[in-house]
Design goal:
The chain is mainly β and 357 residues long. It is built from six helices and 25 strands. It is elongated, with a radius of gyration of 24 Å.
Amino acid sequence: MAIAAGFRDARVIYGYLRAPRDSIGSACMNGINIENNSDVDDNDNVTLIQNHAWCCVKVEGEYRFVDCWLASPFQPQNKNRMEPHWFLTKPTDLIYTHFPQEPVDQCLEPTIHVTTFFTLPYVWAPFFTQHIKMIRYNPNAITLVEDQVCHLVFRVDPSAVCFAFIEADQTNHGSEPTTTTTMRCLTQSRMAPNENGSLERIYKVKAVLPPGHDSGWLKIYAASSAVATATATVALPPLALCFHLTVQHTHHVGGGRLRPFEFVHLHPSRHEFYIREPQCYQLYPLHTYNFFVRGDDMHHKLAIKSPGGKLYKLMYYPQEHTYDGSVKITEMGKWSLVSLLNHTGVWSVVATWECRT
């Protein structure tokens, strides 16, 4: 079609299309030992499975790629919508997911090694359409020590909404089916001015692995607020990027957390609130906690509501748009951060914690 349209430099490329949780070991045909670095010293020793084909075309002196299958509304991740990102995709964008058999078909200078390809995070179209850009990204952040928390910070479009989850697999007795544990991550955002003075949205994600798991996958989903609102009731928005988390143990086997660590539960709200403290979900009886919340530019009436319905109002500091207050936990059950809806006397729930033994 490109040649018929008058483009002289157009060709089909064969290679490997990466899935979110692929590794160099699972993608390799010749059974390399990834523990032995000598096996991956050069591309001659690494042959990836050929599982996909896409097109390359030179447009106005620059190479671009077209992947009709990934653009199709029948592609499962596109949720019955055409995805224009895969038409005339830049080489620097396509290399996150597509690895051609011939290095020259990367259309990059210099080309990247297959091991570099698998150290890149897996990204999908929303990573580019929502203009996600990592802030001070440190690859060591995805290698945790013991019960360390993974911290990721990134910029997105002001209208973007993001969700994050951890998936960790457990295989029982070798041949039995693999079970997957899914845990919520703490995903919060705020608006902040950039170097040009315009406002941008900054997301912070905090994640931990479930007890007993040495690795897992941190998946971040993103969409515009309109799409996210429409899809969140039935399904998550499309996957934007995926990181492989691993853990390093410094103590004897059997240490660490015995029960899953949970972050504070956030509820949909028409206003933006950022929970600074406490960010854990579980509260302990007879402990005093400082509840510290950042709000938007409006003044809201916020309070902590006990399981029995008692309200502890938070103090508002207009210059910082923050709220705080100390509360002694004296009741078992759900504690909530609530916001008064105008002057109606109705409170909406912003976040919840639980007091339990």
